[in-house]
Amino acid sequence: GIDISKLRDVSGAITVDPGYKNTGATKSAITFLDGEKGVLRYRGYPIEQLAEHSTFLEVAYLLIYGELPSSDTLLDFRKKISRHTLIHEDMKKFFDGFPSKSHPMGQLSCLVGALSAFYPESLNPNPSEEEENLTIIKLLAKMPTIVSWIYKKSLGHPVIYPRNELNYVHNFLNMTFGQITEDIVIDKSVVSAMHKLLILHADHEQNCSTSTVRIVGSSNANLYASISAGISALWGPLHGGANQAVIEMLENIKNDGGNSAKWLAKAKDKNDPFRLMGFGHRVYKNFDPRAKIIKKACDEVLDKLGINDPVLDIAKELEEAALKDQYFVDRKLYPNVDFYSGIIYRALGFPTDMFTVLFALGRLPGWIAQWKEMKANKEPIGRPRQIYTGSTIRDYVPLDQR
Ligand code: ACO
């Protein structure tokens, strides 16, 4: 019953909790997570049920607006989104300006931030509900176009324009893997795996990127700027960047003769900064429920596509060995969602440096929902305190006397 916006600071008393391991930053009604029991629910619905029965756009609606949509509402939501899938032709100049090998996450963060320049109405810190919704719809609609165009540009290929008769995920895959000269046939199992992956990434309460989105938004920065900051936070290998790091690690192990025992030992060596990428989680200490679902989807996709990849054999070997190893057991380190997601993305044909961008595409509805909730709660500007440990007062010494 406490109104957090009314809490006053207590001068002198400061809690220091590096990494916010035990500090709640907000109250939220979006995602429930029990790390001990491995439970994850969006708006009360278990992630397992949503991954099995729902679609990504339906889950996006659920996260952002709080309820599952009726079929009419969902149709309306889809229609509105399909009206905004194009991006301004001038945005193409940004794509052209990036070196072809620049990392897709840097481009994505920049391009999403740039949307604010094309839609200046988003700068209004007190929009009407209708205006706020339009900004949200535009971002949801344009993100797949931006992501697939980043990929096409990296290949030096012409971009594919959105096909609005296709559903959100199918349209994205078409823009990514389609050719200008021919219609693409995408296996149903691929579309279904992509829905699952995006749903499983759609929200995860107050993680690093989401907290970033909320804290940037709390200064009344616009939605595009807030999400752009979230994308940058997600980029790091300890967060979303781990899915790329997992495959790079597996490739390194393969190139090193496939000796996973040696690399497991490296991960346990406290004098070696190497960590087993895709293992461990700040909150899940028994298992990551998303990893369980993805592992199954991963097996299905690989089976369906008939993929035989030595890197995947190493992944299996490493997983089995780590799960039996006392070091990992004692520290409750289990495979997280990123351990398997990269394997599926690779099987679907995405290059490694696109993996984190796909995470961002999935996380977008969660970030939007959290930003919207922060605004609706009228939360005060985020401004952590500190304990100062620097020098005590001292006098300035002129340059020629130093
Ligand atoms: N490999 C080896 N040892 C590990 C690993 C790992 N992947 N993860 C944690 N440990 C060890 C630590 O060295 C530490 O050991 P100690 O107690 O002997 O000092 C202990 O386990 C606890 O680790 P912390 O770093 O304190 O755990 P924290 O909750 O801060 O970190 C994190 C969680 C960042 C996810 C960590 O497990 C990690 O670096 N994992 C690899 C990167 C990764 O997969 N990130 C993706 C996270 S999921 C996501 O963002 C969607």
UniProtKB/TrEMBL annotation:
Family: Belongs to the citrate synthase family.
Active site, renumbered: H281, D338
InterPro entries found in the cross-reference section: Citrate_synth-like_lrg_a-sub, Citrate_synth-like_sm_a-sub, Citrate_synthase, Citrate_synthase_AS, Citrate_synthase_bac-typ, Citrate_synthase_sf, Citrate_synthase_typ-I
Keywords: Transferase, Tricarboxylic acid cycle
Pathway involvement of the protein, from the record: Carbohydrate metabolism; tricarboxylic acid cycle; isocitrate from oxaloacetate: step 1/2
Assigned GO CC terms: cytoplasm
Top-level taxon: Bacteria
Organism: Parapedobacter luteus
Name this protein carries in UniProt: Citrate synthase
GO MF annotation, one: citrate synthase activity
Keyword Transferase among UniProt keywords: yes
Matches recorded under PANTHER family: CITRATE SYNTHASE
Pfam families linked to this entry: Citrate_synt
Reaction equations catalysed: oxaloacetate + acetyl-CoA + H2O = citrate + CoA + H(+)
Presence of the UniProt keyword Transferase in the record: yes
GO BP: any one term: tricarboxylic acid cycle
